[in-house]
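pasting for ref
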Amino acid sequence: MIGWLDKPGHRTAAFLAVLLAVAAGMDVWQSAARRAGGRSGFDSAVSAVSYPFARALLQSRAGIEKAWLSVALGHRLAEDNERLAARVGELEGVVVELAEASAGSEREAALLSAHESYSGSVCLAHVIAIGSGGWLSYILVDVGASDGVQQKDVAVTRDGLVGQVYAVTAQTARIVPLTDPASGIAVLLRRSRETGILKGLGSWRCEVRYLDPNAAVRPGDQVLTAGSGGVFPKGLRVGTVTAVTVDPNTPGKLATVEPAAELRKVEEILVLRTDG
């Protein structure tokens, strides 16, 4: 017992217990005296001496009760705040998901609308991977042979040409972008109707080669697919001329082109079915 009282917290608890016992005893004593019909002088003296202690004890008790209620209420409020914060986080996540779904639906609708004049069949695809190793690059989409996609089908966004399908599995298709060095597309300049061949340079860059030495070409000219060769439909937007130089390998001019589609950021693609 003595060892238990050596701890400060235990001594305080014991002191409060004694005070409570004394106060309860005095209360019983005074109640008995009142029932007996009066107060003795000793009773009055004890009451006078004990009153300050009893008052302090009652005040301490009130303070302890108030502190306990504050702690309990604070703990409850903290738990409520944690639950509310978690719920707010969940709702914010739902709002973000709904906003993303809505934005995706709007992009898909705009993509389909941009190519509604295409007479052949189309297949909406979502990009699941974009690979770039400098010179070699590709775009992987979530449609394949089971969706009717085949090699040489043309891939576009609402902004313009992406490239051509060159490998297909049952559920996926790999697209070679127009900036790949293996790509070669017959194009024309919208303003002057000059023609040339768009070649990829890798690293998402491309240029128009084999332009006539006297070709009317300048920065800002819009480049479109020429439609020759029977693969790429005529009139698809390809990009914009950013610079014109003399081709060091031919007598003609060379035009650097910025692709119309943001190939590194594309999310949805429309595959235009061809005859293969």
